[in-house]
Amino acid sequence: MWPFWWKGPSGFSPRSTAEQVTQGIDATGLTAIVTGASSGIGTETTRVLAFRGAHVVMAVRNVESGRKVKEEILKEFPTAKIDVMHLDLISMESVRKFASEFISLGLPLNLLVNNAGIMAAPFMLSQDNIEMQFATNHVGHFLLTDLVLDTMKKTALESDREGRIVILSSEAHRFTYSEGIRFDKINDESGYNSIWAYGQSKLANVLHANELTRRLKEEGVNITANSLHPGAIMTNLLRFHSVINSVVTMVGRFALKNVQQGAATTCYVALHPQVKGVSGEYFMDSNLSKASSLAKDAELAKKLWDFSLSLTNPNSEPANMGFFGKKGPSGFSSSSTAEEVTEGIDGSGLTAIVTGASSGIGTETARVLALRGVHVVMAVRNVDSGNKVREEILKEIPSAKVEVMELDLCSMSSVREFASKYNSSGFPLNILINNAGIMASPYLLSKDNIELQFATNYLSHFLLTNLLMDNLKNTARESNREGRIVNLSSSAHRHPFPGGIRFDTINDEAGYGSIKAYGQSKLATLLHANELARRFKEEGVNITANSLHPGGIHTNLFRYHTVLSGFASTVGRFMFKTVPQGAATTCYVALHPQVNGVSGKYFEDCNISKSSAYGQDAELAKKLWDFSLPLTNP
After folding, report:
1. pLDDT, position 328
2. Which of 67, 447, 484, 506 would staple 411 via disulfide (CB 3.0–4.6 Å)?
């Protein structure tokens, strides 16, 4: 810590105020969320950000108090743009509601200031049965950040302005339990110490910022994440500890910062150009500082991330796979198999098309649907391979009804020929599973001169779906049974090119990246399902359309990428699903009664999941539809 009057390398000192460290900075056009904005340094942070032109969303537990703060700021700055929204970090339900309401507003998000906190509280549990300080100071903010991160990524991409996540930690992060984070005893009341528990939560804040930084850098996202110690300020943080409260009341005017000084480092890290591109650092007194050795432990940060995911998202799969078998609301998990998720379901009388059914999860999907009584049409590029799969299925299930028809998704002519033959066969169509795909291929063009991954994974399925649509609609109407379209996307949809879909440069070889091109195609697959769902609802048609991530499965999808293939071969048995597990979500979405009437959703591990911000962009979905029509119907 710099002596109170000495300036550090930034030119600022402990006595610098929030207004001083942001002097001359124009934040017009930026949108910020500030948690805990109804008191203390949260209020001053809000005031100064608004003063500099930022649109500030005050995320507060007490909305009435928040509105009073807003009124006071507007008296001082009549042109300030401030909104007040309810957020109680003690409740994950409240966090999810806040994030959902914020996202639905359609606002951008440039700055996220995780400011709210409690200090030295007696042992209590949150509404989600997690120790109160850890829940409020870290877990609630971890979940909030996760929920709004896609909005931040989208904003950073579209505005070409760096996003910043600012997490308020404390020098108390140095004074925690001996192990740093008590993962196995987070709720252990017998060993609880209010000061160490506070230190634990503040250590978690630093680690969170550091791990965010690592992940954002890996993704190449223009967002930074930093943590800071605001300084010792006499605020209502101290309300739970009478001894500390008494001491600071007596000596505070000599040893503590005022609120204006306390908010300075937050505002500096949030707005100052000196901090541009700086990420994963710890700040104090508006200068870079040095965190504890535990705070710099990268493995501890990763472990905390996985632990936090398990607390905030029961359906998640941490990297260490410790929660691989944890069941979600559907009653199924990532370890469930296709047979398990369809047990007891009678698919008799249904007819399904499965593309790419001659290998991998396509084969298992065809097998399990046939096992449940569905008449399956295997749409395959290699008919000989398809016939061999059919023979194997018939050996196991002699009564199975399985057909094999040729379909090459690299060729629109082949798609049209397949659809024509199918429609003329007189078969009904209840279920269409757009499963086939290729992954991370080198730059190639399809037979129709369209980038190969986009053509195969998305565009040909778009055409196929359109050509079979009348059959699907007629079948749904005549059978009075819901039709289902199942599009296999991937979590890779989160990592496309900037902007999501390269409409103007879809065939641009110079800017081609095989992984991003795969992500683009899988984003398109997801958007296709969403736009289909919207159109079906408008028409009142009894057909649903959903997309899904099957999970990491070592199949021949990897054949084009030697690094991915080698990685999968080496560690796949520890990190990847088996093929029966990989086909589970497809079969669940295709057959399970829990999915009746559900449309326009994204599934993972046989549970509804959350797609990226691009994946939820209705305008992007419409634009993609309009872009695809002329490509498939010149």
Report:
1. 84
2. 447
